[in-house]
Amino acid sequence: MANVTLKVEGMSCGHCVSAVEKAVTGAGASGSVDLAAGKVTVQYDEKKVSLDAIKGAIEEQGYDVV
Amino acid sequence: MANVTLKVEGMSCGHCVSAVEKAVTGAGASGSVDLAAGKVTVQYDEKKVSLDAIKGAIEEQGYDVV
């Protein structure tokens, strides 16, 4: 399992937190969002999911992974 | 029909716009949100809906009508 903290720009409210968490879950990982810090901590199995896929899922929701 | 523009605090993103518009529609009115201005213009039939009910529906979603 890998644990990575991503810096994500554009999250402004609770709806955004839900959208990002759903994106992470949908990509096959689990994650928790720190809205105030603009950070998303993701935990995933590197054998099953790539970090790029997780980042892509977040960006598809309209946020920038920086 | 009445047309009222409400000042609403706490709307920060497109999800908020959707949530507020849905609240207004759910209250039996129609509305459009100006996110940048923090304003919601509602149109409603005073015989069927009260302005208080519309404000209440918006506040139930976590926003302040000021």
Automatic annotation (TrEMBL), chains A, B:
Molecular functions (GO terms): copper ion binding
Keyword Glycosyltransferase: no
Residues covered by the HMA domain: 2-66
Any one GO biological process: copper ion transport
PROSITE patterns: HMA_2
Pfam families in the cross-refs: HMA (PF00403)
Matches recorded under CDD domains: HMA
Gene3D superfamilies recorded: 3.30.70.100
Keywords attached to this entry: Metal-binding
InterPro entries membership: Cu-bd, HMA_Cu_ion-bd, HMA_dom, HMA_dom_sf
Protein name: Copper chaperone
